[in-house]
Amino acid sequence: MSDLPPLVVALPLLGSVTVLLAGLVRPRTGWPITVATALAQVVAVGTLATRAFGDEPVRYVVGGFSRPFGIELVVDGLSASMALLVAVVSVGVLAYARTAGPRSNPFYATYLLLVGGLTGMSITGDVFNMYVFLEITGLTAYALVASGDGGRSALAALKYLLVGTVGASLFLLGIGYAYIATGTLNMYDLSNQLAADPAGYTDPLVQAAFGLLVVGLFVKVAVFPVHTWQPTAYAGAPDSVSAFISALVSTVAAYALIRIVFTVFTVDFLAANGLAQTVLVAAAVVSIVVGSLLAVSQTEIKRMLAYSSVSQFGLVLAAIAVANTTALTGAAIHLVGHAIMKGGLFLTSGLIATETGARSIDGYDGLAERLPSGAGAFGVLALAMVGVPPAVGFVGKWYVALGAVEAEAWPLAVVIFASTLLTLAYFARIVERMYFREAPEPAASVESTETGATTAVVTDGNGPTGDHTSGSGPRVSLGMRAAVVGAAVLAIVLGVAAFQYGQLLEPTIERLLS
Amino acid sequence: MIDLLADRLYYLVSFLLLGVGTYMLIANRNVVKKVIGMNVFQTGIFLFFITSAFVTGASPPLLTAPEPYVSPLPHVLILTAIVVGVSLTAVALGLVVRVYEEYGTLNEQAIRQVSHDE
Amino acid sequence: MTELISLRPVAAVLVSAVAIVPILASRGRPNIRESWTVLAALAKLGIVASMVPGVLGGDTYVTDFGTFVPGVAFVLRADLLGVLFALLASLLWVVTSFYSMGYMRGLDEHNQTRYFAAFAGSVASAIGIAFAGNLLVLFVFYELLTVATYPLVAHDETDEARAAGRKYLTYTFGGGVAVLAGTVLVYWLTSSPAGPGTTAFAAGGIADLATADPLVARVAFVLLITGFGVKAALMPIHSWLPDAMVAPTPVSGLLHAVAVVKSGVFGIARVVLDVFGPDLMTELGVGTILAAVAAFTLVASSVIALRQDNLKRRLAYSTVSQLSYIVLGLAVLHPYSLVGGLLHIPAHAFMKLTLFFCAGAIHVETHTDDISNMAGIGERMPLTMTAFGVAALGMAGIPLVAGFVSKYFLLIGTVEAGGVNVIFTGALLVSGILNIAYFWPIVYTAFFESPGEADPKPLVEAVLGGRFGEADVATDGGSPDDSSDDPSGDREDSHADDHGYAEDHEGQGPVDEAEAAAHIEHDHGHDGHLAWEHRRWTGEESTWLMLGPILFAATGSVVLGIVPDAAVFLRIVRLIVSGVTGVSV
């Protein structure tokens, strides 16, 4: 049907309201309605995606007000990938959250709102509309992070809120500058107007707009040094929420960055402003290196995974800075692949924490004997993240590295290659602990006796503090295991299928770079 | 120099507000005041937008109407942004209430110490 | 040269990968689990062997899975060089499986299921490396080999084992990064507006590389060689190998003398023969530098080996040295030296495997690891030490054993190549002498000495710096805890067997003496002298699970030395070299 684009955004919103109302009538109806909505979303987005990978994107004018006066929804290959990723991951995390996560109807309502916000952000063709969806995403993410028990979640959410709002406000300011310069808010129109502008791309007004928009999105993507909200937020949120947010929120923000840099400002802007490209490269290099170094120094697993995200998004940023076909294809593959791998890692760490109470690295000793499926999935996902072929982590890195070499950006290429070793540094020690150390005695596995006080708080919203090994917390359900194993398998399958995906994306990337 | 400032006075004020808001966000120890700082920051941006809407030398699209003309589109955008800001403040204050319930204080340093000991 | 589309290359790789599942599933039933391993090994050997006649006749078996990344297809190709390595690896895996059974059961090791599963995975990756059709597929299996062999290195789960595992991972992943960087550069160099790049192997070198920018080509070469050189134990990136001796001896044998290190030299062979090719290498001038590094490694590690008292460490340094024979042969780029280098791959494999298996058998039966405690052990383990002697003769290059044939070609090749290569001839000869110097004492002391009456061994026992450099004279005043040296204290670790590994270079010291002494009795010797318990030559010294493989490998070395062409390896090597250089040897 031709009204699919707005339906794809409206469906989760409607689902959210339904869940909330149903919760007033009968409790415990949240999960079925949410799952039904999420599955319908997958079908709808899938249908939309089949049309989006052609030479021309799917354009939809909302309310009959054609551009540049109205809001336009534009779905090209990249948008469709993001929307599909959002839909699929939301189903996967729901499978996990049935037993593990917070189980109230308001939680599910907020969850669906977040899905709607992310989808909207992926398919909009208007910058202010993107700001609105960005804020919707942010608000719902803050609320979801706060849905854990205890003060830690609330504090983490508050910090996330304050820092995230500054970022979004800078984004808004950037929109303002762009509007002043051109008088339009539609992305396609903006790119035309900016190109036609006599002062060209070196106009300070345009440069300021670029700078503000990009910095605002840096905050949302959690690039070093504006990443500080991320470790606290990921560690303080309930496990299912950490997985969902880590997989999707930064990913769609990175997509927004690609959209702004390439569709609105185009490659010509980067060519005209060497400083812009330098800044992007510098931010990428620093993120990759410092993110990994900070990850190595962490003892709490979820904080370590958060810093790992900083490093991996540095890789995506490097691809954006290089700005050629190969690199952007790699960026897209890595965005999808990283979402699956990081979401899977968070789900696995949640599974392990539920079963054994282990939230810090020390607790992972001998995990292979205690929980073989969890240890196995963690190992596979960790190696995929390091870049062992043929998993998707390797394929994304190949494209990005090749793009850097083709652009003859040698320092960047060296850092990209070295990132494998940096990632190995913080993942290898966990794999070693899981398989080659002995499990601690049950009486000694009490997490709270350790000096690292921050590790003792179990924040999945359900269990007591982590001094139990069985019985008192929620059980590990089939859904949890299935979600975890599914993520691990998907990481490898995507690696093999990544080439086909790259082929599909070719028209989209060409158009992005023209 | 002076007439440059005079021309752009409104913009300068809005950036001043941005600066004040950022300072409040960072320097204040009371969490509620941080939220207020966030609001001031956002207000600065709103004022920036609205100021930019004033078009010199234009008049409304009527046969005979005097200056000035203010473009309504930024106003509309800011209305949306104000609503967003209000909901953000609401969520923030809700979180502040919960933080107060959990930690018993609104002083950021005290909270940090307590949460580290957890 | 016909290319046959066939599933046999991928089947050869997958047989043991698939076998991992039943191995893991038969966790509690050792005999069933071991039979899966043997079954997989025999099947793999069968598939690889079935391709040999075709490959010798000029066919190449190809399995193409389609494009993996733009311009690079996931191709498994069984060509001459690939079949050389694959045949070697699969044949020796059969032998090692039986040996592993004897060894692991003899020591009552823990985690045997994980061990056998990881072993199966490692060999699958090794065959994948052998049959890789381009640099990228080679890289894929190279990394998978690292992942599969890591559990074997850290098998013991002691602190040393974990430290060795970490070192192993760091070195090999670092090597992998270098290989990836080199591969990307090669791809970029060969890509043009006309079409995407390629990393596919072509006998004699990839054509497009010849016209590429020489500086970048040299950088790519250095990166690739460094990356593969980590596993090929070129100095100075060799130091993971002696530390990896903490692994069980079958692992040290098959993997660290055959599969892992040979995959490193195999990678170098592919780079020299099929990516850059002899002509381009001569043009770029990189061959001599590589040969110099190899020659240095040859001699330096032989010298270091002289000083090792611990048998496994001595064998490890010997491996480092012998691998550089192969690299030297490849780097000199003369047809004869290429033949010598490539033939040394199977020759050294058979001989070194024999040596390691002997060391393992000695460890299992008598818990003796240091050479200084092996005086007269020929009484106790006659067959083992005879096999050891035969293999040692081969390592030194004595005729009738495999090492002689490859060394002969190497020497002729370096002499004929002329010019500066004569230095390498000298290095080879010096190394040959050093080989005798560090292997002969072992054989002599085993057969012709008895415990307590062994001659002193100054190379091993003397202190560096001479008599006046003894530890109790500290020129800087020393430190308080210098004198309290108690290595035996915490070595009596309860459960973990150290597999003959000595943390310090020189040997196990008093611990090993004590363990050996437990097996040496006054009653065994004449007139109340100390002696080892006497065993006859009928194989009662150890189980046939271990003796069979030892004798098989020793016999293989001799067969390869007497009829190398009929034993198929030399034929394959001659065909490879004539295919690459056009000169028939």
Largest chain-chain contact?
A-B, 31 and 33 residues
Which structural class best describes the helix and strand composition of chain B?
A: mainly alpha
Regarding quaternary structure, what we see is heterotrimer
Order of helices and strands of chain A: HHEEHHHHHHHHHHHHHHHHH
Give the terminus-to-terminus CA distance of chain A.
Answer: 30 Å
State the helicity of chain A in percent bands.
over 70%
Number of distinct beta strands of chain B: 2
Number of helices of chain B: 5
Shape of chain B: elongated
List segments of chain B where confidence is low: pLDDT < 50 over at least 5 consecutive residues.
none
Estimated radius of gyration of chain A = 22 Å
* Largest beta-sheet characterization of chain A: 2 strands, antiparallel
Q: What structural class should be given to the helix and strand makeup of chain A?
A: mainly alpha
Distance from first to last alpha carbon of chain B: 56 Å
SS summary, helix count of chain A: 19
**Lateral strand order in the biggest sheet of chain B:** 1-2
Largest sheet of chain B: 2 strands, antiparallel
| Helical content class of chain B | over 70%
- The total of beta strands of chain A comes to 2
The overall pLDDT of chain A, averaged over residues, is 87
Strand order of the largest sheet of chain A: 1-2
Describe it.
The complex is a heterotrimer of chains A (514), B (118) and C (585). With 514 residues, chain A is mainly alpha-helical. Chain A has 19 helices and 2 strands. Chain A has a two-stranded antiparallel sheet with strand order 1-2. The model of chain A is unreliable at 444-472 (pLDDT under 50). Chain B has helices spanning 2-7, 9-27, 31-52, 72-103, 108-117; strands at 54-55, 69-70. Chain B has a two-stranded antiparallel ribbon. The N and C termini of chain B lie far apart (56 Å). The mean pLDDT of chain B is 88. Chain C is mostly helical and 585 residues long. In chain C, strands 1-2-3 form a 3-stranded mixed β-sheet. Chain C has a two-stranded antiparallel ribbon with strand order 4-5. In chain C, helix 7 runs antiparallel to helix 9 and helix 12 runs antiparallel to helix 19 (569-581). The two termini of chain C are 19 Å apart. The interface between A and B is medium-sized, with 31 and 33 residues.
